[in-house]
Amino acid sequence: MSEIDLEDFLNTHGQLLAAVEELSEEQLTWKPSPQVWSVQEVVSHLVDHSFVISFRIRDILAGTSAQLPAFNQDAWVSGQYSNRGRISDILDAFHGILEYNSLLVGRLSDEELEKTGINFKGETVSVKAIIQGFTRHVHGHLGQIERIKQAQALV
Predict the structure, then answer these.
(1) Residues of 96-114 as b/e, b for ≥16 C-beta within 10 angstroms?
(2) I need a surface site. Which of 24, 48, 54, 78 has the fewest CB within 10 A?
(3) How many CA atoms within 13 Å lie on the side-chain side of 112?
(4) CA angle 93-109-139, nearest 5°?
């Protein structure tokens, strides 16, 4: 497995900023259909995912043997009314959690990065894999944001 690229991890915030910087409030909250997320809801989901991976990493480091939690992402997004908020607040939260997690990860030894837990699918995952997976997850959602923007342009 490749090393953790903390710079790539931290750059996810800048990539999100760039993806939304020119969008109006209407564009941020536009949805092609009720069951599809808006750009703002996608970013809000990434904050939720940040909370979840924060817990998972700390649970592994604490040596907890309980299965790492899953979360119902659609219910979390719809239940918090993200489109009624401000994108700047959502991005600030994302950045704060990202920075805090990067400080923790930067202090970990190679041995600690290899510590594992059991995810909600029953798979063994390491702290390193969780961080790498989060970065890939953000990159995937950046693609989703671009597709939403393209769909708006067609309307």
Answers:
(1) ebbeebbeebeebeeebbe
(2) 24
(3) 11
(4) 40
Q: Look at residue 123 and tell me whether its pLDDT is greater than 50.
A: yes
Q: What are phi and psi of 135, to 5 degrees?
A: -60, -45
CA-wise closest residue to 40 among 49, 32, 50, 30: 30
Q: What is the pTM of this model?
A: 0.93
- β-partners of residue 55 are none
Q: What is the CA radius of gyration of the chain?
A: 16
Domain ranges of the chain: 6-154
Output the average pLDDT for the chain: 94
CATH number of 6-154: 1.20.120.450
